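re the bet — no i am not wrong, look at it urself. input seq straight from the record:
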Amino acid sequence: MGRKTKYLREYKQKLEEHMEKGNSYTSFAASIGVHIDTLYEWEKKFPEFSEAKKTAFTHSQAFWEDLGLKMAINGNAQVWKFNMKNRFGWVESPPTNTEGTKEIRLAYSNSNSSPIDIHLDLQDFDL
């Protein structure tokens, strides 16, 4: 007979609340005192936890997209771009117009979604 699981039904809601603040899956594991591998096991064993993870990642990405747009408008896009590329698999496209236009182009896609292309032309902003 195996060890008793540390999984609690309340972790589904706690995970979503944790990640909608922009926090990571790994930091959730730390916050409840388990190793990240434990969360991966729970995904396999508890379908509701697996679904909560999908929702939580959506919330986390939305948090960072909203924050990033604010940062880009205020002239601090580099940190945001780095985060989106490394955390969510975004890739940067070269600028289409190099004649003094400040622009940000990011593209995102994964196996679960259609590609998303975000293009911010910042020449109208006082940066």
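see?? The first strand starts at residue 91 and ends at 92. told u. also Residues 2 and 73 are 53 Å apart (CA to CA). so pay up
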